[in-house]
Amino acid sequence: MSRVALERTYSRIAQLPLRIEEYELSGLELRVSDHFTRLSTVVRLYGAGHEGQGEDTSYASPDQTSFRADARRLPLAGDWTLDAFGRQVGTLDLFPRGASHADFRRFRRWAFESAALDLALRQAGLSLAVALGRVPRPVSYVVSPGPETSAASVAALHERYPGMRLKLMAAPAWDAGAMLGVAATGVIDVVDLKGQYDEDVPVAVRVDAALYERVLRAFPDAWVEDPGVTPETEPVLRPHWPRVTWDAPIRSVGDIARCAVRPRMLNMKPSRFGSLPAVLDAYDLCAEVGIGTYGGGQFELGPGRGQIQVLASLFHPDAPNDVAPTGFNESPIPTGLRASPLPVSTDEPGFRAP
């Protein structure tokens, strides 16, 4: 991919002064089912009378509990620029007991870097929109209801939240009739095939050419995310490359540049990139070469969800952003959640949304 030399978006915030005096960690949890309780950890940085927040969304519960119990004091205190602090965090071992998955190292680094951005902006009295010179807009979002979705459950949810759009996770048990029933609701924007994960990752879906063919036929207008590409699936996917989008394999500008076929759309999850320059450089590349982006969540329970909503408001407000309010993760889903498009308050200093 050829690139046009433009000012890096990151350069607008890299030299923000940052004072850190201390930090603390606090846990969040949500009982999702009898078999799964989601844990995350809020990173709080304090300095000059302000607080910055970020969220570690590593999925393994033992990684979260050991993080909170770690008695070490990381060398974070001092006067920094935002860029110097990020480079410092990059030198630290944030998983002294080892990470359950290599990706979690980036997730945790993002927790510290996003907290630092929040704090630096608050100390400077700036919102991220002002710092980057961008105009925020209300965020369109999709809801991800899980693989057990049926036409009846979609209809029931849509009755409670008219105008709602969905991102589905493909299920091997779906037959063509079930898919067509869901497709007939007309509210499906993205189907996630979960074919780019290691087999030991709980959300991974077996790569299956027959499943892919059923999905592609049933949802002809939807984006199709993360198919597994094999000699068996490639012929099925080839006619549909323009609507294939990627999530799990995209962790850097280099990953985007290495795509064998230039995608029209990518799922941007900042925690997959780990650092502020990596995230903003990826946005720059996509803008330069004409790749669309939409936001993706990591089952955030705290400030991390508001932060991805802020990024969506600045970079891709009209896309099928998987950044719905966290209440949609609860069972049953409560009433009164804010409808799409989501007004994101980005006028206040910092990198957070209510």
Automatic annotation (TrEMBL):
Residues 321-354 are annotated as: Disordered. It comes from the Bacteria. Transmembrane segments: none annotated. InterPro entries: Enolase-like_C_sf, Enolase-like_N. This is Mandelate racemase/muconate lactonizing enzyme C-terminal domain-containing protein.
